[in-house]
Amino acid sequence: MTKTIIKLTVRDVRFPTSLEQHGSDAMHTDPDYSVAYVVIETDQGMQGYGLTFTVGRGTEIVVCAVEALSALVVGKSLEEIVSDFRGFYRLLTSDGQMRWIGPEKGVIQLATAAVLNAVWDLWARSEGKPLWKLLVEMDPRKLISCIDFRYITDALTEEEALDLLLKAQTGKQQRVDQMLKEGYPAYTTSCAWLGYSDQLLKQLCTDALNDGWTKFKVKVGADLKDDIRRCSLIRQMIGAHNTLMIDANQRWDVGEAITWVTRLAEYKPLWIEEPTSPDDILGHAAISKALAPLGIGVATGEQCHNRVMFKQFLQASALQFVQIDSCRLGSVNENLAVLLMAHKFKVPVCPHAGGVGLCELVQHLILFDYISVSASLDNRMCEFVDHLHQHFRSPVVIQNAHYMPPKDPGYSCEMLESSVQTHQYPQGQVWKKLQ
After folding, report:
1. Rounded CA separation 58/75 (Å)
2. pLDDT class for 1, splitting at 50, 70, 90?
3. Which is nearest to 405 in space by CA: 244, 180, 246?
4. Are residues 235 and 267 in contact, defined by beta-carbon separation less than 8 angstroms?
5. CB 412 within 8 A of CB 360
6. Separation of alpha carbons 295 and 119, rounded Å
């Protein structure tokens, strides 16, 4: 029987994380972790859940964009969508009028991600599988048909993408078994937000080390002397044998980034993340070239608009670590394109996560990448931030600093209704107390 989508609702859900400086960095000093939360319903009573991540003010704009897209979704059957998922993706991203406020970037693409995340969740639930398993078990030709290759065929053709997937079939079951047993390696960003005191930083690092964490990311970029002090402190805490990364969240100009990171090179960071404007591909290339002799790579992607920009980053050798985001790009469809391009260009994928729900979602994508695309864990890890997981029906499971594969059907997007109601902005109980 067909499952026709008869209703789409979207709500503005915010958490006052700025009160304790959770998520604070050099550019986002007071983030309130938030989502535009989408629920789609079918005539058979099934529901699909999706979201896109924001940091507070402006979430109401994303909600408006989702509502504008809803007319393209309601009335469609799930079977109709997945039989031509590429066509449905283009329907949302190429509307003759709404694409003007994109195209495929900014608020309209965040809204597209929220809607499509809900559709993928519905599809996985209808198949009774977690999303990563739906992707892993999908026929490669079917999977390719979900991707819009428009604008990227000069870097990756459909035929090349299919060949990559077919080659990765070898050993796939062994990798599934490995992930189910060991999980996917993670790193933590929870210890060193820029607004944290030294005392809190030391305590969180100690706790993380005791819990088996070996890879740590530090926020930098506001004050060089403070960065030197904090990086020195954390390197002393974690020891020379553990991995350190630094993240400037777009704070610097190109020359400033090179000078600043050179001063931090003695602390042996694996990468500098978002050293400059996320749109400056040639700037990232210049930084990459300058830092290569120091053994420091450049990572970026959490605010990279679309597959076209990722294509150019890869073509320009402007990054050494690809950071996909489950809600910045156009959902699973566009992330699949980036995963395949990264594999062709031999650049490891280390996803951006954290926020609200980003860990829950992106774990599915990186599991698929290892099992069905890259077949490698070299220089690969997925970000983990230990905030707000308790608000989800199927929260992430971390064991020994590894993501354990989700078992519940769907894309792990569903939030607890009690949490949604309490934190809905501005009428939720949490926000009424703060007014």
Report:
1. 29
2. low
3. 180
4. yes
5. yes
6. 42
pLDDT of residue 294: 98
What is the predicted pLDDT for the residue at 26? 78
Closest Cα partner for 62 from 335, 401, 368, 328? 328
* Cα 293 to Cα 287, 290, 302, 326, distances in angstroms: 11, 7, 25, 32
Distance CA 110, CA 145 (A): 22
In the predicted model, what is the mean pLDDT of residues 375-392? 96
pTM to 2 decimal places: 0.97
Phi, psi of 271 (to 5 degrees): -150, 160
219 flagged as catalytic: yes
Q: Which of 3, 219, 391, 402 is catalytic?
A: 219
**Is 311 within 8 Å of 283 (Cβ atoms)?**
no
Beta-carbon neighbour count of residue 47 at 10 Å?
16
User: Which of 133, 215, 343, 352 is an active site residue?
Assistant: 352
Instruction: Give yes or no: 389 in active site.
Output: no
Q: How does pLDDT run across 180-190, given as a tens digit for each residue? A: 999 999 999 98
pLDDT tens per residue, range 211-269: 999 999 999 999 999 999 999 999 999 999 999 999 999 999 999 999 999 999 999 99
Structure tokens at 313: 């980053």
Query: Can you tell me which residue has the tokens 């029906």?
Result: 393
Which neighbouring-strand residues pair with 77? Answer: 4
